[in-house]
Amino acid sequence: EPQLSGDFATLMEWADKVRRLKVRTNAETPLDADTARKFGAEGIGLCRTEHMFFDPERIGAVRQMIMSETEGGRREALSRLLPFQRQDFVELFRIMAGLPVTIRLLDPPLHEFLPHSDAEIAEVAESLGADVVAMQRRAQELSEANPMLGHRGCRLGISFPEIYEMQARAIFEAAVAIAKETGKAPVPEIMIPLVATRRELEITKAQVDKVAQEVFGETGHRVEYLVGTMIELPRAALVADRIAEVGDFFSFGTNDLTQTTFGLSRDDAGKFLPLYVEKGILPKDPFVSIDPDGVGALVKIAKEKGRSVKPDLKLGICGEHGGDPFSIAFCEEAGLDYVSCSPYRVPVARLAAAQAALHGGGDRTA
Ligand code: PEP
Ligand code: MG
Questions:
Q1: What is the pTM of this model?
Q2: 50: CA distance to ligand 1 center in Å?
Q3: Mean pLDDT estimate for the chain
Q4: Strand ranges in the chain using DSSP code E only, listed in sequence order
Q5: DSSP characters for 228-255?
Q6: What positions belong to coiled-coil segments (predicted)?
Q7: Rounded to the nearest whole angstrom, what is the distance from the C-alpha of residue 232 to the centroid of ligand 2?
Q8: Distance CA 160, CA 32 (A)
Q9: In the prediction, which pLDDT does 1 show?
């Protein structure tokens, strides 16, 4: 049972008095959300919804949704996923009890959702009433040479709008249910992944707004909500003023931003980065600590451009860097509003945020 107590809890209270940065958590399960709250998280900064779909009860419908060649087929699969997804958000809103909850719409590694074995293909074919050869062709069409730079994030939401519509419906229905249950409506912060252009955010935000109106009409209840974006591609940082005209908040996805700024796969970096650090080519692993001159510079550009349009634009960070003290010091100096990190990093982040507030931002070492 995670719990802070004794001198450590007192130290944390002191830290909270001096820090300016808020500390949120990355969480998608009730257990993670609950743990993070016990460690003092002040909200969820990133709920990665794709993880929810790997559940054995759901993966069949997910495969069907991706593999179906008709909108009707996709909608049928999505209608089976809706109750699960609604329940996911009901539980998170209940645990977070009015604290902010940022829900990121689906950002799947598409290849992980595709059927792989002959048995899986046969199963999808049967469930869709399609023939096996057609399904093999479909799986081939959807497979990509470079999935991490492919049909992910909002690109998928734009190709298959019904996916984001189902998720938005689940979020709003859950928020209305909690408002009825507790008398206090959560304010969901809906986040669009992998945005590179203003238009992508406009299109996906319109999908969300449309569903919000439908649910409010059907239930006779309204809830406040925000729609914002991840900034995790260099282009998004460079056109952040245009993106800020559409979005209510930015959250820096520094995992992808590091990958795309260095042109270095986040999954393979470990193979040679230690050598780079050993030789002094890089002072630190940039996937752990923000590189102030690369990703850090893009964060500052996005902040300046975004806030030139919306002075109060809410800014956070939700990559792994959000739990790293050096990066937290950078976020303090850059003027972000919050960091979001994994539940067990929350106490460290509270301390690091306090230290950064007292001693200023991180050193420039690169
Ligand atoms: C990121 O890219 O930094 C991020 C938080 O999203 P994910 O790690 O899920 O790609
Ligand atoms: Mg990302």
A1: 0.95
A2: 12
A3: 95
A4: 22-26, 44-48, 101-104, 188-192, 226-231, 249-252, 314-317, 338-341
A5: EEEE-SHHHHHTHHHHHHH-SEEEE-HH
A6: none
A7: 6
A8: 30
A9: 64
53-57, 171-175, 263-267, 283-287: least confident range: 53-57
With beta carbons less than 8 A apart as the criterion, state whether 24 and 41 touch.
yes
97 sits in the region (left: phi over 0; alpha: psi -120 to 50; else beta) called left
Angle at 50 between CA 48 and CA 56, to 5 degrees: 130
ipTM of the complex, rounded to two decimals: 0.99
The whole-angstrom separation of Cα 174 and Cα 176 is 5
Nearest CA to ligand 1 atom 4: 253
> Partners of 251 in the beta sheet?
230, 316
Residue linked to tokens 């974006």: 229
Whole-number pLDDT of residue 365:
43
Farthest CA pair distance, the chain: 65
The CB of 111 under 6 Å from ligand 1? The reply is no
153 vs 130: CA distance, rounded Å: 27
Distance in angstroms (rounded) separating the CA atoms of residues 91 and 95: 6
Q: Is 254 in the pocket of ligand 1 (CB under 6 A)?
A: yes
Ligand 1 touching residue 100 (CB < 6 A): no
Confidence class for position 359, pLDDT limits 50, 70, 90? confident
Whole-angstrom distance, CA of residue 38 vs CA of residue 2: 7
- Average pLDDT, integer, range 132-141: 94
DSSP 332-343: HHHT-SEEEE-G
- Residue 48 falls in which region: left (phi positive, over 0), alpha (psi -120 to 50) or beta: beta
Residue type, 43: G
Closest CA to 121 of 60, 78, 79, 72: 60
Q: How far is the CA of 181 from the centre of ligand 2 (A)?
A: 33
Residue-wise over 339-355: b if at least 16 C-beta within 10 A, else e? bbbbbebbbbbbbbbbb
